[in-house]
Amino acid sequence: MISHEVIPEKRIDIKNEFIYIPINNKNEFIVNKCKNKKVLDIGCCGSDILKIKLSETIHAKISLVASYLVGIDINNEGIKYLKEKGYNVFLKNAEEFHLEINDFDIIFAGDIIEHLSNPGRFIDCCYKHLKKDGELLIITPNVLYPSRFIKLFLSLKYINNDEHVTWYDSILLKWLLNRNHFSVKYFYYEPDRTILNRLFHRHPFFSKNIILVITKGD
After folding, report:
1. Largest Cα–Cα distance of the chain, in whole Å?
2. In 3D, which of 95, 106, 101, 83 has the Cα closest to residue 180?
3. Domain spans of the chain?
4. What's the rounded Cα separation, in Å, for the pair 200 and 145?
5. Section 7-33 average pLDDT
6. Strand order in 38-42's β-sheet?
7. For residue range 151-191, what is the model confidence (pLDDT) as tens digits?
8. Could you say which architecture CATH assigns to the domain 23-143+161-187+212-216?
9. pLDDT at position 185, please?
10. Which pLDDT value is given to residue 11?
């Protein structure tokens, strides 16, 4: 029998949901987090590995500071290219990967989760490969970024990457991570300096990207 019980909505005080910390540049923040750490970079090819100088990619920048670095991606050409350049990378799916190493200090997943059909499987794989006091770094576009709605309202054109299959706000992403035994406390953001978003952007909750630092739950 199908239950028709109405589940009450939760009212969330966004001011107290996270510790909000401004950063100047997300790539610099990521690289600094990875210094002298054992790092897994999920989606190491990004969307531009064959389009820009290798030294400009976040994977290459992490490799300069990490004590150990592994990368995985489903981009066959990108993985082949990185292997030829001497990088320790593997052709693996973010939703079902298994590596011999399961004690990474940092797992970085930049602009990945919005591409995934089964994000819970991805989070579960991350949990299994992260050391007890390690950190999972997730970056994803914020669906509540004001410019997205303003541009849609003015042009009636839906602007999105055709490989994205979902949008997240920080609360829903936190609930998903909590469900998979992670604890989310810190929300990092780049203050928006454009005139348009200064008018509408009243709180970090509405920043362009969601940048979360996540630890294993108790």
Report:
1. 58
2. 95
3. 23-143+161-187+212-216
4. 9
5. 79
6. 19-22, 182-189, 209-216, 130-141, 104-110, 38-42, 68-73, 89-91
7. 777 776 666 667 788 889 999 999 999 999 999 989 998 88
8. 3-Layer(aba) Sandwich (3.40)
9. 83
10. 55
